[in-house]
Structure formats: C-alpha cells, structure tokens
Design a protein that fits this description.
The structure is a homodimer.
Chain A lengths: L1 H38 L6 H8 L3 H7 L3 H19 L7 H15 L3 H13 L8 H24 L9 H21 L6 H10 L17
Chain lengths: 218, 218
C-alpha cells in the first residue's frame, strides 16, 4: 500500500518538476527574445536575461549551458511562436505564402532577433558550430513547408508554367534571408514584406496579400 | 644642381618603396585568398598566409594590423579580381547580368571565400564592426551597378512592365546572398547560377546565359 502510494506520487512529483522546469525555461526564452530584440545579439547579456526572470546567471546556465545554446533555443522558440501566430503549415498554399509575408512584416518589428538569426545562421555554416545541425534541419523543414505550399498552388493550376515548387521554395528562402541582410545594413533601402509579396505575385496567379479589411493590421 | 638631383631621386625612391609595398600587399592578398578558399574563414591562419608569402607573421601584421583587416582587404581584392575577370560595369545591361551568372558559377568553385564573405557580411551588421563601413559602401555600389544594368534593359524595352530597376537590383542581391547561405549549408540542394539565371529570365525579355560555344566554360 505504501509502495503503491509512493509509485503513484513519484510520477506526479516528476511531472510537477518537469512542468516547473519547462515554465522556467519558457520564461527564460521569452526574456532572452526580448533582450536580444532590444540590445542585439552581441550586446544582449546572459546577466540581463537572468535578471528579468529573477534568477542568477548561474541559474540560467543550469538550463542553457552557454550563450550559443541559449541563442539556438531562442530561435527555436521564435519558430514555435511564429507557427502559433501565422498559418504557416495549413493546406491552403496561398494562405501559407500570405503568412510568410506577414512574418516578414512582423520581423521588421524585431531587428535584434533578425540580426541574431542572420549572424548565427552564417556562423553555423561551419560543421563544428554548435548550431550547425539546427540550421541544416531548419532549412530542410522550411524548404519542405514552402515547397508544399507551392505544390498545392500548382495542383490548383495557379503556378506559372515551368515553375518548380522545390526550386521556388529555395528561391523564396534565399530572397527572405538576403533581404534581411540588406535591411539590417540599411533599414530604409528595402521593404522586406513588399519585395516578398511581389516575388510571389510574379509567378503565382492572382496572388495578393490580404486586404487590411480582413482584420490583419500591417 | 645637387639639390635638383636629390629632388629627382627622392620621389623615384619613394615610388620604388611604394611599388614594393604594393607588390608585397598583393602577394599577401593572393595567398590569403588561397588560404581562406582552402581552409575556410576561421581555420585559415595568418601564419599560413605569411609562410606562403615567405614572410613572418609579424611582417604580415605590419601590412594588415589584424585578421579582420586582412579579411576585409581580401574581399576588396576579390571584388577587384571579379571586375577584371567579369564584365560587371559595361554599358550592356544583359552582359552585366550574364557576368553576374558567371560570377555565381565561379563562386561555386571557391566555397572558402564565399563562406568568408557570408560570415563577415553578417557580423558586420553591427555598426562598430571594423568591416561595417566597407559592407555598407559595397552594397550601395553593387546596388547601383546592378540597377544601372536594369535601367539599360528598361530603356531597351526588355524589362517586364512594372519592374523597377532599383528594386530588381535589391532582389538580385538578396537572391545571390541567400542562395550562397543555402549552398554553404548544403552544396547539393541548390545551383546558384541556374537560380539566378532563371530569376533574370522571369522579367528580362529574351535573357539567356551565353552558349558554351561563346567560349565560356561553365
């Protein structure tokens, strides 16, 4: 009987601990996203992130052993938030493309995070970089997600003749990444969302971003 | 008379010194380009560069005070070589676009240099980075060079209706930069020259890269 009780209580405690650890990690990631968005990738300090969560820097390092580990987790967290906020993987290809344009608009409001992504993705080219595998996987997944949207549009007869969903996905990602770099170097020279939208319109029949009346503010 | 001789000799000596320094610097840049192309941006060492030129590391640091200074100079040197090798700023817009496609083909043969460019341009987003001003200026110049090519094509009636030379230049640069990043992460997933060529063909009437018979191997 007492054994049974222990058996029953233990998992409950473990779940409690797990939930607590998870909540703490999420709080750290939210704070880190804020700090890096405000101060940029290099200046944003672990100490500042820890302070906002109300823990010590050592406490933070218990969850994320180094700044690079935290940065990678922040980017994953950003991806999760983007998937919650924007309809990126539904079965309506045009909606996915519109969501990508909305994402570009949103990105323009968080330059620190975009810079973090831009620098870390370039540094992670090196196979021994701690975030290398994360970026390789991320590009494979993103490519497949966007190619799937183009395939849906192709099936609906809306893709220009000769356009290839897989290659169009590569070009879309390239354009988004490249526009970010130019925009970070000079905010006035390029409108990321507009360029992306026009690119889609150039080979997707009838593509247009939703009207403001649809309830989306941009 | 003797004063006159001195006056005549002194500048000749100065020119000799200048030419020697310049030759030494060029030799260092050629060696550095090789080393970074072979070993990549991080692993390529100043010591290895110095050894290839037959000087000491201290001797190298006399010409380039830090690795970042050398890296920036290597990129400028690469730009100079590209301008010599490819017809990037002539008055034939289509030839300029073809030269950009040729440049993308060439870049695929020097991944170490492309990686150097990719990482350094991202890190140089930070306004206090030693290569920041170089990249800002480089993007302004490159944008103007490509926009000029598109304006020539527009004047010749070859640009699709609604296409804007300045914005097309931004998109071209973004596509080139973004394709490089994807290609560096996975060489098999993308053909940089082909994607760029198809992009031009999508809004430049009659655009095609030169036939192999024209003497260009690709």
């Amino acid at each position: 009987m007492s054994t049974e009780t222990t058996t029953k209580v233990a998992p409950r405690r473990a779940r409690g601990e797990y939930a607590k650890t998870r909540a703490r990690k999420m709080a750290i990631l939210d704070a880190a996203l804020e700090v890096f968005a405000e101060s940029g990738y290099r200046s944003g300090s672990l100490k500042e992130v820890a302070t906002r969560v109300g823990i010590s820097e050592a406490g933070l390092l218990h969850h994320f052993p180094s700044k690079v580990h935290l940065l990678e987790a922040v980017l994953e967290h950003r991806d999760d938030l983007a998937r919650e906020r924007f309809e990126l993987d539904g079965d309506d290809g045009a909606a996915t493309l519109r969501a990508l344009v909305d994402l570009a608009t949103y990105n323009a409001s968080v330059p620190g995070v975009v810079e973090l992504y831009c620098v870390l993705s370039a540094e992670a080219i090196a196979p021994d970089h701690p975030a290398h595998d994360y970026f390789v996987t991320r590009y494979v997944d993103t490519r497949e997600m966007i190619a799937s949207a183009f395939r849906q549009l192709q099936d609906a007869g809306r893709l220009a003749p000769g356009a290839d969903p897989h290659r169009a996905a590569n070009a879309t990602i390239a354009l988004m990444d490249g526009l970010q770099l130019q925009w970070l170097l000079d905010r006035d020279v390029v409108d990321m969302a507009r360029e992306l939208s026009d690119f889609f319109a150039s080979f997707v029949e009838g593509f247009r971003v939703a009207e403001p009346l649809d309830g989306i503010t941009r």
